[in-house]
Amino acid sequence: MTKEECQHIINKVYPKIKEHYGLSKYDNYNESPEIKLHHNIYARLTGIEEMEGESNPDAEYDRFTNTIWIYWPESKSARWIIETILHEYTHYLQDGEEFKRLYETHGYNNHPFEIEATKEEENWHLFKKLL
Known about the structure:
It is built from six helices and three strands; from the N terminus they run H-E-H-E-E-H-H-H-H. The chain is mostly helical. A three-stranded mixed beta sheet has the order 1-3-2. The radius of gyration is 15 Å and the shape is globular. The model has no long low-confidence stretch (mean pLDDT 93).
């Protein structure tokens, strides 16, 4: 999937996702996160376009900048993009301090907020008709 195809899907579904879920009551954000596309987390963080690393996530929510990053080369389908947006938007809706605290006791795989975000992906069908 190309970067342009990803952006087209985001443009179609993200306004409805924001409308459906609303704003976070945590972290004093009065607007939904921006979604940005990049090809690689290592290149994004270092500013070196050809930078590579051991494992590249497919997406992340950056709480400090209120940005959802989607690493578009990992995009598999329109469904995957919708599920990814729902997953990361769920993290935006969650309490950041509680997220950090629970990470220390649960790790990643058993983290209640990760489980919740993964479960939210099942709602992708609510937005597929927009494509």
